[in-house]
Amino acid sequence: MKIVFICGSIESNKDGVGDYTLRLCEQLKLQGISVGVLAFNDGYVEEVCEENMEMNKMTFPVFRIPSGLEAKKKISHANIWLEKYNPEWLSLQFVPYSFNVKGIPLGLKKQLSSISGNSKWHIMFHELWLGLRNNDSLKYKIIGAVQKFIVKSLVTSLKFKVVHTHTRFYLKVLKRININAIYLPIFSNIPLIANVLDLKTKLNSSSIKYVIFGTIHPKAPVDDFIKELSAYYTHNNQHFELIFIGRSGFELNKWEQTLIKYNVSYKIKGASSVNDVSKELQNAHFGITTNPKFVLEKSGTVAAMREHKLPILIVAENTKPKANINVNLTSDFFEYQLGNFKDFASHKFEFTNNLGVVNTANQFIEDLQIVNFK
């Protein structure tokens, strides 16, 4: 099997979907699959370039087309490279903003149709469209309507043999517009680094550690949560602290001021190496995410905490899907609401082993092979 993945940019550690694609390629290459990457709208190069990408001693070809190049030249360069590589499958890693800075890639359908050749098409929906929340702005709803049209036209035109997405919420949304997708769980870009921490160190820790990894989303009930968290541990005569890892964003200041207000210990680690992130996650007792529950499964940072077997507390904006779609939480999550922290403290968490890049790569191959056998 020979597969070319098509994404926007492929600059390592600069683009989440690009990093996802590289890590999946690495795992597929380990399993004997021939892979390549076409970065069709790369914002990190100024000229068309071909290179061999190396991931843990696995190398595969990457062809990068700058985002500023006109559409006709993009198509021409892509066709020349694809004819040389001759893939059996083209796998579109779809995010609207990967292919257009405003998130409205109106020309994408025509461009991709022009490079199809004899390859079969696969698509991974990392994102769908804006306006899926009940409190989204009118602007988001208008943009979302255009993005939804683009998604439907892509599916109609390219006739994808396999459609994947990594949230059960997106599965149901796609089903409502007659697109039958398959759930393919996301994996973390932070692999578990073995032997970085003595387990006894964690078990014997005098402080309960909560880790918040990655972007902090707005409108979370920060004050209520920290107040309740502090009261619980003070009552039980226990010490706890919050640890921030990665690029937290502008909301970090709000959390920091609230922690100071309630005299809570915290550390800000910032951007860290893969090994350091894995060590911090292994050293923590609980994870915190500010993603609403119905989009949890698309978060790479949530995937990292899950793969490190952390119970995860959802402290997020009170928002719901615009459509009446119910999403049930798995047993390694707990959703914070005002007054229920004591329930979290006694909650029984259970974990799944069906996570990680190996599991995802295996299912990816199986789903494509089913098409080949038909």
Automatic annotation (TrEMBL):
Domain of life per record: Bacteria
The protein's name in its UniProt record: Glycosyl transferase family 1 domain-containing protein
